[in-house]
Amino acid sequence: MVTISLAMIVKNEENYIKRCLNSVYGVVDEIIIADTGSTDKTKDICSFYTDKIYDFKWIDDFSAARNYSYGLATMDYILWLDADDFLLPEDRIKLLKLKETIDPKINTVMMKYNTGLDLQGNVVFSYYRERMTKRECGFLWHEPVHEYMLTTGPVLETDLCITHGKIPGEKSSDRNLKIYEKKLRKREFLSPRGTYYYARELRDHDRFSEAARQFELFLDTDMGWIEDNISACSELAKCYLKLNQDKRALACLFRSFVYTTPRAEICCQIGYYYQEKKDYQTAAFWFEFILSLKKPVQCWGFLQHDCWSYIPLIESAVCYDRMGDYKKALKFNTKALKVKPDSLQAKQNQVYLQNKVALQRKRKTKGAP
């Protein structure tokens, strides 16, 4: 059985850290905490789980902090979590099993990162991250913000999931944006990845015109990861819609098809575009088209799971309702209800459409126009 060090960087995480550490305590063999300046009870809480708590002077560089925490690890593999990440009970069991069964030749373990859940606890947004690496490989983190690890050698993709959960309604920080802007003021170079994430930070702060310029700059480098290129097209389209540049927005969505086969997430955006224009026939085409697509199986990019099933079904129902084809609308809504039996919208639609279809039959029987 291999051993695992958990290496974390934290700051003012008293609302989350207990949940995180509870979920892995007794599974990992070592817990290392690199605190970057907490002023709340974070370190006190961590002290119940480990005595390996270190202070790291914050220098506006997440990679530097992570590399510091990794340098303190002593076990076979190093696992990283953020304070608002945690393992569900079933994933805790999977991590225990992974310790027992992993081939020591594996350098990197990819785990699914579930960052979006619906009210019923179903995963609606996920992607894969490099989550555990062999310590002796000495892999390093790169980029000051939205850091990543450049790894080599054998990779294991698992069905073990890390769940991310913040308090609903919690405001997003401008910390990352300030780090990027500080670098730019110092005339420091942003990598293509850095440009992409800077654009996302600008978008998150409603600076849509600036975000659009950065997304365009990123795509023009032609050096981005395919999944980031697709995401950039999607986000660029949203920016142009906010700027009332509809045709440019639509062109951005179609631009994503250059990188790979059409993705359901993009096609949903196209469907919504035509739905907004009240061109329900064209909107229905795109929503139905999604149902012919195969959901990627080995995809490390962002996946909005509802876009591959529930959304195209229920939106097709909406489109056909608007066109007066209630029978076809009911067919799609019935399928949507099977996918999400607890959906209030689908339930309400079902009653409404059943009544519409019954009324049409009654009128037809009576010979009404």
TrEMBL record:
Superkingdom per UniProt: Bacteria
Keyword vocabulary terms for this entry: TPR repeat
Name of protein: Tetratricopeptide repeat-containing protein
Annotated signal sequence range: none
InterPro entries: Glyco_trans_2-like (IPR001173), Nucleotide-diphossugar_trans (IPR029044), TPR-like_helical_dom_sf (IPR011990), TPR_rpt (IPR019734)
TPR repeats: 310-343
PROSITE patterns the record matches: TPR
Glycosyltransferase 2-like domain ranges (all copies): 5-106
